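Technical note accompanying the year-one report. For the benefit of new consortium partners, we illustrate the data format agreed upon in the data management plan: each record pairs a sequence with a structure-token string. No post-processing was applied to the example shown here.
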Amino acid sequence: MARALNVLIVDDEPAIRQVLAAALAKSDFQVESACDGQEALQRLEVGDIDIAICDIKMPGMDGIEVVRKAKQLKVDTVFLMMTAFASVDTAVDAMKAGAYDYLTKPLRRENVLHRLAQIRDWITLQEQNRTLRHLVDEGGPELCRLLSPPMLEVERLLRKVAPTDFTVLVTGDSGTGKGMIAHKIHQLSQRSAGLFIPVNCGSIPENLLESEFFGHVKGAFTGADRAKKGLFVEADNGTLFLDEIGELPLHLQVKLLHALEEKRVRPVGSEQFRRADVRIIAATNQELGNMVKAGTFREDLFFRLNVFNIHLPPLRERRQDILPLLRHVLDKQKRAKGWQKSFRIDPDAETALLNYDWPGNVRELEHSMERASILAEDGVITLTDLPQNLQYVSTPPAGDGAVAPTAATNGGKLRDLVRDYEMQVILESIERADGDRRLAARALGIGLSSLYRKLEQPYPPDLFSE
């Protein structure tokens, strides 16, 4: 189902405006009218009209001049012209000015609706192509079938909830694959023909968040030289994936709640609401319940998002998944290199990989194996091809000649080594951020609460008062 479109009817005859408006409103279009070219341009300049059905012959400014001036204003509106003087000349003039097509009067309702349906399909295709190009540029998700008991339970849950329209909250540590789970839910849903639009709530500057989510009209603020639809309208009848939802400021949490409940949004600078029937999948590595208690996350929004929770356990709690993930990542690398033979992991390297605690989870595993595939000689990954922190598992410390403990013989000491390394990375990140723990957490890709938990420090009393 395509999203509802805003249509502007431009005609100097009141009867035509009224009849057309009534017919289109019954067919799920949002309709407005203008009695002349000047009024039409004022309304078009706001920038939220998808289609203008415009008469060619009007007193004062004719329809072709309206099209020309709208294009000069960079208005992103599709024009469908009307004329009682059907001729090749008027059609050619309209097309040269930038019109999509034209209709002849007297109008027939079924012809108008058929032409609008074609335009709606064309607009939808353009929007999907833009989003698909973005997803291709970002590398798109490649899923790996995992058979550990925790991930089999995750798969059971996502297959149960996917066909419904429930909001889903995906939780888990950073790097566990929450985005891939969200995309799989969309693929298995009744909205799979619509767009899946991911957005990282922590990566958008706070002053632009409202515009990104809900759109804006031209001139809404400095730099808004043209209208923007916003993510909710773009994802109408599709899925919007809100990653790092815990980073959303309180004032925007209120507006997000209203958008979810009312299924409509109001662009910045506009007085008009637009329909936005969007399924929300949210994700976080933070404890939203604790944030609710601290007053940094709205309780009503938390309950609205947490209708159905899917929790992804860390990789160290599902070690059966390590080998399948390793093979999956290496197969991707083999295809990327155009190799016929598969990569091979020697026994020492495999021991280290299987017994490492993977504090960065699947993301760390992917990055480690991508690095190793570059260094590997003749397709064989050895211990020295792994990142240095993985080599600690089975190589002696430099200088004293002692044999370093392995997970097979001294598992507790391995955990200490991993913990020490993680602490070193965190402290170095805090130092690079000049002591700003919030900035350090963002650079590490973890939540602020997770950083304090790893430091084993209590939250400062003013942590959430900023």
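Partners are asked to follow this layout when depositing records. DSSP finds 19 helices and 14 strands in the chain.
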